[in-house]
Amino acid sequence: MDKSAYHRDTWVEVDLDAIRHNVKTMNHHLKDKEVMAVVKADAYGHGEIEVAEAALESGATRLAVAVLDEGLRLRQKFPDIPILVMGWTDPKYVALAAQHNITLTTFQSDWIKQASSYLNDEHLNVHLKVDTGMGRIGIRSVEEAYDVIKACKHTNIFITGVFTHFATADEPGNHYYSQQIAAFKQWLIQVKRYLQENIVIHIGNTAAAMRFPDDMFDAVRFGIGMYGLYPSKFVSENVSLHLKQAFSLYSRLIHVKRINKGDAISYGKTYVADQDEWIGTIPIGYGDGWIRKLQNFQVLIHGKKLPIVGRICMDQCMIRLDHPYEIGTSVTLIGSDQTGVVSMDDVADYLETINYEIPCILGKRIPRYYIN
């Protein structure tokens, strides 16, 4: 990314070598199965083009996204790589997908009938989504599968893959996971003979691929792990794969001042100094996705953890300093600094959410710079 296009001292660094390491690690773990790099939501906020390029360089063979627009952007850069849209696509856009050789997801016979009416000579590839227990989208019975397969007859729509998604692969215990995979295998026994040969079967997300590599079929959808983040604390503690976090968030002090005991900071006077203190201001706020609930969260300056005080503003927030620092001093909000570390999980735990959400909500006002 061109640094001259941004004029604010807050930025993200994405370590593409970490992405490459994580893809190679998963490839080695899986041995003979394909890695489908999941780059939806702008590669979980990391940057779809740059991450996809690094993943493909390192052994990924396919890309997966959530919506057609994401697939179209990637197709401009990667003309020959298989791209799967995993979400629902309006049938009126199927010709556009077919023209760009983008594979869509289907799970409704009526969708097939509508989609075929929008195709002329174009051939559309689809993957059939099976709901084995996630309860989100997908066919839920063999009969529904037969209806979809039958609807494809005498059309230019071809089923080239099938997949499901596990709801609890990142949690302790295997009972529900085992139920889901058993249901999928039973479904496949009854349906596969009606499908063309050499279809791609993919059932594994990061958690399932890490924990149960021998259960995976032809490919796995490598999402959160590709970014160096574990799907859950349980997985990180019980799987021996070493991943490298790719995402770091930095800012710089733009103002440093001394305040007196009793002085208040930010809206609502929610922070009042109980002694004379040094306060620093950095240019990041909830307008960037650094949300107000992060008040009192600790960031790093020169390896020391220092708290955010007062309410976080739309564009700025304040830090209680241990002593005066120079204007321009670097502040690490996510990442490592000397001996200190603030991980994505630290932020997620503080916000009582999951690590997936954090890079996704950090917005476009924060530029992403790529480190090789």
Give me some keywords for this one.
eight-stranded parallel sheet, 372 residues, TIM Barrel, isomerase, alpha/beta, 12 helices, Lyase, Ornithine Decarboxylase, Chain A, domain 1
3D structure, described in words:
The protein is 29% helix and 25% strand. By secondary structure, it is an alpha/beta fold. Helix 1 packs across helix 3 and helix 6 (109-117) runs parallel beside helix 7. The model has no long low-confidence stretch (mean pLDDT 97).
CATH homologous superfamily classification of the largest domain? Alanine racemase
Helix content: 25-40%
Count of distinct structural domains: 2
* Strand adjacency order, main sheet: 4-3-2-9-8-7-6-5
Shape: elongated
Instruction: Kindly provide the radius of gyration, computed on alpha-carbon positions and rounded to a whole number of angstroms.
Output: 24 Å
Q: What is the percentage of strand-forming residues?
A: 25-35%
Number of helices: 12
Can you give the mean pLDDT? 97
Structural class: alpha/beta
Distance between the termini: 13 Å
CATH C-level category of the largest domain = Alpha Beta
Number of strands: 20
Biggest beta sheet summary: 8 strands, parallel
| CATH level-3 fold name of the largest domain | TIM Barrel
Which segments are poorly predicted (pLDDT under 50) over 5 or more consecutive residues? none
**CATH architecture classification name of the largest domain:** Alpha-Beta Barrel
Brief write-up:
It is an enzyme of class 5 (isomerase). By secondary structure, the protein is of the alpha/beta class.
What secondary-structure arrangement, pairings included, does this model have?
Layout: E1 10-15, H1 16-30, E2 34-38, H2 40-45, H3 48-57, E3 62-65, H4 68-77, E4 83-85, H5 94-99, E5 104-106, H6 109-117, E6 124-129, H7 142-152, E7 157-163, H8 175-191, E8 200-204, H9 206-211, E9 219-222, H10 233-238, E10 247-252, E11 255-259, E12 264-265, E13 271-272, E14 277-282, E15 298-301, E16 304-309, E17 317-321, E18 330-337, E19 340-342, H11 344-351, H12 357-361, E20 368-371
Parallel strand pairs: 1-20, 2-3, 2-9, 3-4, 5-6, 6-7, 7-8, 8-9
Antiparallel strand pairs: 1-10, 10-18, 11-14, 12-13, 14-17, 15-16, 16-17, 18-19
Helix pairs in contact: 1-3, 6-7
